[in-house]
TrEMBL record:
The keyword ATP-binding applies. Residues 2-233 form the ABC transporter domain. The keyword Nucleotide-binding applies. This is ABC transporter ATP-binding protein. Keywords: ATP-binding, Nucleotide-binding. It comes from Bacillus aquiflavi.
Amino acid sequence: MLEVVELTKRFKQFHAVKGVNMFLEKGEIVGLLGPNGAGKSTTISMISSLVQPTTGDVRLNNKSIIKNPEQIRKVLGVVPQEIALYLDLTAQENLEFFGRIYRLSGAELKNKINEVLNQIGLTDRRKDLVKTFSGGMKRRLNIGVALLHDPELIIMDEPTVGIDPQSRNYILETVKQLNKDRDMTVLYTSHYMEEVEFLCDRIYIMDEGSIIASGTKDEIKNILSSENTILIKTERMNDKFISALKNEAVITRVTVQNEAITIIVPKEVNVFRTIIKHAEDTNTVLMSVDVKTPTLEDVFLHLTGRALRD
């Protein structure tokens, strides 16, 4: 349905996106992951026809949208990272305003507003000012705006940032249902790996402007199939112990996060004696040493050297 071909974007001397290639089949939910500054938002802006690429192409059903962006705007819904609503209008008034921008009117607009309010669970708050809404309710209304014109493709840029767990779960279930009921194609970016695990059929991992890995969840995890991920917890963090691990040739990567140390080693290497030796040499008290089943977060750390939220 959608194909991105060798897409690049330069802002003067800064190379934000570097030859990105990706595709979305009809009815897929595809995750686009990357740390802050990876180039995700710029890529999304080019796909949405808001930013002109420096080179490359975006094709919708094999037709370029670069010279004719109107064709994608008719079938695209965008849920931006920042709330894009008028706070001094009611939920219904916001939907009426954006519905007219989508060239809806009369009974058609009224019916779509009723349908969308029901989908996002805000029918009973339709007459309330948006400034009285919680963060989760604003996020849900933001999604409602993107659904008004029955888009075939929807781009959701971190739609659950800063909201409570109940609203977050509601949004995730809504995305699943839209995909199931309408066969809607979704491009989903998130800082929460568990959301991507729950929603996405395939995943692209982006860093420093380039796609560095892609595939199904299992294919991505298999990147670490020849390695073990070991989680080390200590009584207190000891920089000498961490440095000793980083200087150990058999250890592929050392990451410190959430008061724990994660190391990656080849599966054939028995590293436990090495860990114990360095702990003894640096007076570090070990609380636990556990071998983990590789997760998407582990692969992301392995590929980028950063946590997704960094």
